[in-house]
What we know:
With about 80 residues, the protein is α+β, with helices and mostly antiparallel strands.
Amino acid sequence: MLDKLKQIKQLREMQSVLAQERVECEKNGVKVVINGKMEVEDIKLNSELALEDQEKAVIECVNDAIKKLQRTLAMKMQGMGGLGM
Length: 85
């Protein structure tokens, strides 16, 4: 029972640390910021681009930022010892 409680505490601590991560991606002047909870925090558009080009850049930025964040979180989890299970 105590082992399970320790694991839960460890998971919560890990979740808190990972949630503080932030990743930025920029393409053609369009910028997206995503946090460790996989939430989009900010999007900056480039008014010089056509609407279709802005939409494409946002999609590419979000997808690239998610991939980058997943790699970053996986490396951090390995460095923290994984889930310890």
